Amino acid sequence: EKAVNLKKDLAEMQEWMTQAEEEYLEKDFEYKSPEELENAVEEMKRAKEDVLQKEVRVKILKDNIKMLAAKVPSSGQDLSTELNVVLENYQLLCNRIRGKCHTLEEVWSCWIELLHYLDLETAWLHNLEERVQMTENLPDKLDAVNDALESLESVLRHPADNRTQIRELGQTLIDGGILDDIISEKLEAFNARYEELSHLAVSRQITLEQHLQTMRETDHMLQVLQENLGELDRQLTSYLTDRIDAFQMPQEAQ
């Protein structure tokens, strides 16, 4: 009777493993939304816990069959053979579910990481847009134009590392058919805004550099003119002080 009960327990265990394999490993999942992906991750975590909890039951079965085999070798031998098959299938099921759970957790982590980098770069784009707007309607003063240019250039020196991460993470998920529509839409919107703002900022940078160069050249010309006028003023004052007749002065002084 004990052998019959153990044989029944082995059959029930094998049936449960078959159902678990069908439910957790053979279903085709499509992750088209973050909610679906998150639910799949949580489901696989529960599956892993459920399978690992059966380890106690498997151990009890193993111990009972060993004890029976020691007492009744004829009955125990057949059960031991069935037990080995169950143990092998159980270990395989555990490994596959662990692997799938780990994969889904990695995918979810990849999605969260992508959102993180998108948030960082979106904040940078907002900052860049503000700096570009600050270059509008500047007072026509050398210091103001120079400060605006340096401020814009400091933002443009932003490293490309985050954008590289966004591209690689997004492509990894899309290649796996995971959240591909949502990610493609997000990347398209981000890339379009990045191209637009970066081109506008570089164009404004070039305009400011040219304007600054013109202002510096004009400022230099005015400074030279002012120095020449000062020198001329000193000469004229000297002529007047010495009461020199105008016709005795050099032509330029006349």
UniProtKB/TrEMBL annotation:
Keywords linked to the UniProt accession: Coiled coil
Superkingdom of the source species: Eukaryota
Pfam families: Spectrin
Alphabetized SMART domains for the sequence: SPEC
InterPro entries, per the entry: Spectrin/alpha-actinin, Spectrin_repeat
Coiled coil: 3-64, 208-242
Protein name: UTRO protein
Gene: Utrn_1
